[in-house]
Design a protein that fits this description.
about 350 residues, alpha/beta, Rossmann fold, 2 domains, about 40% helix
Length: about 350
């Protein structure tokens, strides 16, 4: 039986990345994700890997670009302001169609904001983040176990579709400790015939760039890329449903907010209120199917978030605005309490929308 290990969320990401075959990490310290870099600094040299603390976030994301272009499994991590600095590089990586894993352990914003947990980078992550037409696969862990398992999943999806996967966590799950299990499995491998590995005079040169001076050529690349995104939207959404079988009210929450919301759902059920929870695990592709199905039977949605309601838009789109979407939130580094969520559920039950 696999051993249970007590780990902090950030350390679980780092260990999972190593077990997934990542041997190149480039980053820069920022609270509340610095433990990822510290773990990599300690472990990478012992396994023949590369750890490099770059001179800036901008430098680190471009190092990721280079290592990925050479066919390596590579990762970087940061927190909200640092991710903002990386967005030009993220756009270059997207425009070059190479895989990478990026971790954002979110803190409050905008600006320097604070170092407390937040979910306020939802728009930035799910709508692309940098300039141009592109997407990233966005995975939202709700436990330390998922910090590990979704890191491995993120690497696999990045390699499968030749694009960026992002772990969008929050400071709470990054800093909390829980027992987790690592399965003893060999990491998946993907053929990368496009990689810049040297030709040895056995094949034509590979060229990786994101510059297309002919507008027709760039247009075709963008159309082709969105065909790939369409496949991802069809095949890769992940979500959890809880007590939704007979629900009249649907709570939607991700990350740490979903754990708070689940407690509120249990209490509301004990009061006779038929409420359930849908937890998006992929924020992009957003789980449209269960939200759409719920919209045909519930009287309202409640979005529980650590921001000003950024996921509300996606719930409205997925439900085609068939039912109202209420917001239960805290921001600035605050977390909604189960009582706050429960009060929102009670209000909807009473018809106070």
């Amino acid at each position: 039986m696999a051993e249970r290990i007590l780990m902090k969320g950030n350390e679980a990401i780092a260990e999972a990345a190593i077990r997934a075959g990542c041997r190149h990490y480039f980053g820069y310290p920022i609270t509340p994700q610095t433990e990822i870099a510290a773990y990599m600094a300690k472990k990478m040299p012992k396994i023949g890997g590369v750890f490099l603390q770059a001179e800036s976030e901008i430098a680190s994301i471009n190092m990721v670009y280079g290592a990925s272009a050479a066919g390596m499994r590579v990762m970087t991590s940061s927190s909200s302001p640092g991710i903002s600095l990386k967005t030009e590089g993220l756009s270059y990586i997207a425009g070059s169609d190479v895989p990478a894993l990026v971790v954002n352990v979110q803190r409050g914003g905008p600006g320097l904001g604070g170092i407390q947990p937040s979910q306020s980078d939802y728009f930035q992550a799910t709508k692309g983040g940098g300039h141009g037409d592109y997407r990233m696969i966005v995975l939202a862990p709700a436990s330390v176990q998922e910090m590990a398992s979704l890191t491995i999943k993120g690497f696999d999806l990045a390699d499968k579709y030749c694009m960026t996967s992002m772990i969008l966590a929050d400071g709470t799950i990054g800093q909390m400790m829980e027992p987790i299990v690592f399965e003893d499995e060999e990491p998946k491998t993907y053929e990368k015939p496009w990689a810049l590995t040297g030709t040895e005079c056995k094949r034509p040169h590979n060229i990786i760039n994101s510059l297309y001076l002919k507008p027709e050529e760039l247009e075709k690349k963008n159309f082709d890329r969105y065909e790939k995104y369409k496949l991802i939207e069809e095949n890769e959404p992940m979500w959890e449903e809880y007590m939704m079988e007979d629900a009249d009210i649907c709570v939607v929450a991700f990350g740490i907010a979903s754990r708070v919301a689940k407690n509120a759902v249990v209490t509301a059920r004990s009061e006779g209120i038929k409420v359930g929870l849908i937890r998006p695990i992929t924020l992009w592709p957003f789980p449209v199917a269960p939200i759409s199905a719920a919209a045909d039977k519930v009287k309202a949605f409640i979005s529980v978030e650590l921001n000003m309601g950024q996921m509300v838009e996606d719930i409205k789109l997925a439900s085609q605005c068939k039912k109202p979407v209420m917001l239960c939130n805290r921001t600035g580094g605050m977390i909604p309490s189960p009582d706050q969520v429960l009060e929102s559920i009670r209000k909807v039950e009473k018809g106070d929308n």
